[in-house]
Design a protein that fits this description.
With 363 residues, the protein is mainly α. The protein has one domain. It is built from six helices and no strands. Helix 2 runs antiparallel to helix 4 (197-298). The radius of gyration is 63 Å and the shape is rod-shaped. It starts with a helix and ends in an 11-residue tail after the last helix. Residues 33-311 form the ODAD1 central coiled coil region domain.
Length: 363
């Protein structure tokens, strides 16, 4: 069919006059030159198309890489936020523990001060009572010694007078002591409100036992005060250790926060650069799409077969660019095939009518 069509066109273009060999050679050279020019144009168009395809592939890979980087950045950002919230919660718990420990320390200090004050007062009172009791014991010991000496019989004659005077003096002293003791006993009876000496002695022994119990109580209080002091020292040491530990952890958290801020600034800067790169890539991609559309229009491709696939959105974009590229590829393949068969038919006619009156038509 193509052969008959070419022969019909050749008959229409055949001149009335006879063509010489020189004209034939000239036209043959002109036809070959035109064919070479068309081949060069086709080759350049194919190279530009391949370059556009390669650039499109590179841009797609770069866009995929940027999307992956963005997803990884979002994951790292969420992880850092969670870690910062956990560390902030831990810091709040440490502050609460330090506050509770400080309040307990204040309470123990106030209790310790009250116990020290009470123990000091009890110690002074019991010391005074012990001094009074010791004085009475010394007096009783002196009186008992005096009575024992008085009962002894002197055998020295030269000392009888002296002993007599001494005895008289001792009797007088004894009488005075008896009077003093009676006065003291009267005072004790008045103070105790009891005339019976045995009951007074019982009260004295009972009071002595109470004093001894109070003395033991004071000793126990002093021991407890010492234990509380040691416990308070341990608590104070633990509080100091916790404060130092909290300071160290606060410094570590501050360093971590500074590092996170630095990383955040770096990531933010990288994100801005990536967004700028994405914007430039989108501009390049838009330019490539416009170039593909220009090639589509330059090749005069028919949009009819692909309108059903494109739907309402007939403009070229990332989703339908493959359809346009497929149409362009088919168009170029058709042009190459037509050019090949036309060239083959032309060369056949040239060989067949090399010496005839045939004139090839070159469009």
């Amino acid at each position: 069919m193509i052969h008959f069509r070419l022969e019909a066109e050749i008959r229409k273009l055949r001149p009335d006059t006879v063509v010489t060999d020189q004209d034939y050679d000239t036209r043959l050279k002109s036809g070959k030159r035109n064919i070479k020019v068309l081949k060069d144009r086709l080759e350049n168009a194919i190279k530009r198309f391949c370059a556009l395809l390669a650039e499109n592939k590179r841009l797609r890979e770069e866009i995929d890489h940027l999307l992956k980087e963005r997803a990884r950045y979002n994951v790292i950002w969420e992880k850092m936020l969670k870690e910062m919230q956990i560390r902030k919660k831990y810091m709040i718990e440490l502050i609460e523990q330090a506050t509770v420990a400080f309040d307990q320390r204040e309470e123990w200090c106030s209790k310790l001060a009250a116990l020290k004050k009470r123990a000091q007062g009890d110690y002074l009172a019991h010391t005074e009572e012990m001094r009074e009791i010791q004085r009475k014991l010394d007096h009783d010991f002196t009186l008992r010694e005096f009575l024992s000496v008085k009962g002894q019989k002197r055998v020295l004659k030269d000392l009888e007078e002296k002993d007599k005077k001494k005895k008289e003096s001792q009797v007088q002293n004894l009488e005075n002591q008896i009077i003093q003791l009676e006065n003291t006993m009267d005072q004790i009876q008045k103070f105790c409100g009891e005339d019976d000496v045995s009951k007074i002695a019982t009260l004295y022994l009972k009071q002595e036992e109470e004093n001894f119990a109070l003395f033991n109580y004071v000793n126990e209080l002093n021991h407890e005060i010492e234990l509380l002091g040691e416990a308070l020292s341990e608590i104070q040491q633990k509080i100091d250790e916790q404060i130092e530990l909290a300071k160290l952890k606060a410094q570590e958290r501050q360093k971590t926060l500074d590092l996170l801020k630095s990383e955040l600034e770096t990531v933010t800067k990288q994100r801005i650069e990536d967004e700028e790169q994405v914007r430039l890539t989108e501009l390049k991609l838009t330019s490539v799409l416009l170039g593909i559309e220009e090639v589509f229009d330059l090749l005069k491709c028919d949009r009819g077969p692909i309108l059903g696939l494109l739907g309402n959105n007939a403009a070229i974009n990332l989703f339908n660019v493959k359809i346009y590229l497929g149409t362009i590829e088919k168009k170029i393949s058709g042009l190459i095939t037509r050019l090949y068969f036309a060239e083959k038919a032309m060369m056949t006619q040239f060989k067949k009518f090399h010496r005839g009156n045939f004139v090839p038509a070159i469009n």
